[in-house]
Amino acid sequence: NSTNNTTEKLNNKERKMARLPPDSFSQMIASIAVVFGVIALILACVGIGTPRWYSAFVSTGTGTYAKTNSANFFYTCDVSTSGVTNNCTNRDSSLYGYPGYSSSNAWMTDYNQRMQNAGSLCIVGILFLTFGIVATSIMALRYFSAWATSIPPALFFLACLFMLAGMAEGARYLLYNDYSANLYQTAHLLTMFALALTAFAAGRVHFSRRTEAGHNTPHNVA
């Protein structure tokens, strides 16, 4: 028994010194998570950068409605009768041009701060999403220590948290009724999928590293 244990420890040390990348199945799961993350990143960037989060409509009198202007957390734009976006204006403290806003309404006095907070939170969420994609890619291709396997899922978790917080803060004013908001919400959903897949792959890698170090090996008691 002592000889077998000694041989097993030597083999574990050799595997540890080799610093092998994860197994193929863990690499596949991590790669799928990266794909979800990249798609989410593209959708989030397009969503946060386009003005169609909240669109205002007016009745044309013929039973149809026409879009008059649209807004996001950073600026608002007029919409022509042909549907073309023009005359965009950056958000200011008075929320000039923002649909549905009136400074005479007491409950709207903090809406500018809400928009600023929402935009900041959403951008921080995108940054964490980017870091999560990079960390997961590295974990899939290179050697990761057991303690480091918690970093990729933690980054995706923070991305989900900040993205949701940003949308919740912005919803205090904006009514999400157009495609830009839908894109960002879809990105948030895909980020949650990436989080689940990355956590699963990270758990497998963590178990593998612990096994290589001999922590998961049962010892025979003579």
From TrEMBL:
Presence of keyword Membrane: yes
Transmembrane segment boundaries: 25-49, 118-141, 153-175, 187-207
Domain of life: Eukaryota
Record keywords, A-Z: Membrane, Transmembrane, Transmembrane helix
Protein name as catalogued: Uncharacterized protein
